[in-house]
Structure formats: structure tokens, C-alpha cells
Amino acid sequence: MNPFAPVEVYNPFENKNYTDPTPPPQPPQSQFSPQSPRTSTYSSPPPPVPPPTQNPYSDGPELKFREDDETEAFYSGKSTTDKFPSMSPSPSDPPPNFTTLPSNQTLPQSTTRTTGGARVTVQTTEDDDESVWSISTYKKYFNVSSGDVLIRCARSMWPFKYDFLEAVKNNPDFYGPFWITTTLIFMMAAAANFASPLPYDFYKLTTGAAVIYGYDFGVPLLFWIYAKWADLPVSLIDVLCIYGYSLFIYSPIAVLCIINITWVRWLVVGIGCLLSTSFLVVNLWMPLRAKLAHAIPTLLVLACLHVGLALTFRLYFFNFQ
């Protein structure tokens, strides 16, 4: 026995008839072949269109259509409602839940107001917007700039060159007449302080304010009432605008009357009266010329009142000592 001889060790796994149950790894196989066109493994036919469902709260089935049908109908110029004649409204039938109105009738506008934290929709009518107690009614009569007022004041001193009423009929204003009359009152007070060394009579200032405001707003109101009775085509805002701007020329005249020369005062007041009265008559003649039976006597009365105002200015307010 050779002590150096190899010793055989029994290996229980050494069995030639033993087979591994795990299959060997296989190389990945490509889904594409050069002989066949490429096909996506994720491509699948479109899902079937589900049948129409019945809504328990409606009388008929709900009609559903795919997005492809809408897109095709959009590019082809056809409406999707053409596929369902019952859904297409008839041109002769009015829309549902609407009331057919005459052509000259409009629906009232609705405004949303917040009341107690809740938003409430309120129907407003034209009468509400035109209420005499609403600020929005008079807001449009002050929608002028300083440049517009200055241009209108300049045109009032050239009565025969510009058609003043035609220029302001789309945007008559209250701002100009009120500003002109107020400025004229303070101009007379300032001119009296410069023309006389004696203390100014404030009673004359209050009297002047009453006369000017009363004439500038009272006479147009009386004339408008007469125009409504005689059916003359004039509006109150136009008459107030004309009367207000007709007094602008007396503001520089008040400054010129500081000169303590009698004939100079009479001259400037006479020129101002001529321009102011001409401006008033020319612009009121335009809407009144259609009815001569009322226009001529009305304009004569208004011209006499305007001349009387000029004489009051000269003999009482511009008579500085």
C-alpha cells in the first residue's frame, strides 16, 4: 500500500444522470427582423365605444362622442350636432327659456352688489340710472379738461367765427358755467379793492353773487320751461352751457374797470355787452330758427335781459369810487 497514493473522496453530487432543473439563460431575442416591418409591442386596437348610458334624471339617453369626431367635424366645417338632427335647433324656433322681445325693447341691465357678505344680482333699469338724486347722472356733465374749458372760453369771445353749440352739443358741461360765474364774483371783489382806497362793501359782494347766480341759472331754467311749452328743440343743459360761457368776457372787463376813467369803463362794458349778447343770440338762433313765430320774440326778450345785466354791472358793481 502506497501511502502517497491519492484517496478517492465520494462526491454524492457526482452523478452523471443528474440534470439541473433550472434552464440555462437564453440570449435576448429581438422583436424586429429585417424581413418584417417594425411593429410596436404596445400598439393595440382602440377600445370599443361604450354604449349610451341612461341618466335617471333625463328623458333620453346621453349621447357621447369621441374627441376624434369633434376634431374631424371642426376641420371639415361640420357641426357635431348634424349627426343628431334632434339636437340641432330650428332657425324659426326661439331659443329655449327665452322670451322673444320686440326689436326696440332691451332687457334691463343687472348689477351685482354685496349685501351682508353675500353677492346679490339686482336688475337696474334706465330710470334708476337717470335719477335726479344719483351722482352718476351729473358726473357726465363735468367730464371736461382744463384745456376744453379754456378753448370754449376763448370761442365765447368770437361769436361769429365759431359754431359754439355745434362744438359742445356732444359734451355740454356744468363745470365751465359754474367756474365762470364764481370767478366773476371774486374778480369784481378784487377789482373793487384795487380801485377804491375805502373798505370794501361786503353787502355788494353778496348782492353780486345772488344776481349772477340767479341770472346764470334762473333765466335758462325759465327759458327752458317756455321752450317745452312752445315745443322748441332746445335742452336745459345746452342753454345753461351757453349762458355760463357768455359771461366769461366780464371777468377781464372787471379788471379793466379798475381804471378810474368813466368813458373807458363805459367803453369796455359796452364792447363786452355786444360780444356777450351776440354770442347768446347766435347760438340760440340755431335751434330756434325752425319756428320763427316763437324764435324772434323769444330772442328779443333774452337780448334785452342780457343788456340789462350789463347795465347792472356798470352802474352798480363796476362803479368803483
TrEMBL record:
Biased composition annotated in UniProt, kind: Low complexity: 29-43, 111-124
Superkingdom: Eukaryota
Membrane topology: Multi-pass membrane protein
Pro residues bias spans: 44-54
A GO term for molecular function: small GTPase binding
Transmembrane segment boundaries: 174-195, 202-226, 232-259, 266-286, 292-317
GO CC term (a single one): Golgi membrane
Record-given protein name: Protein YIPF
Organism: Arcella intermedia
Organism ancestry: Eukaryota, Amoebozoa, Tubulinea, Elardia, Arcellinida
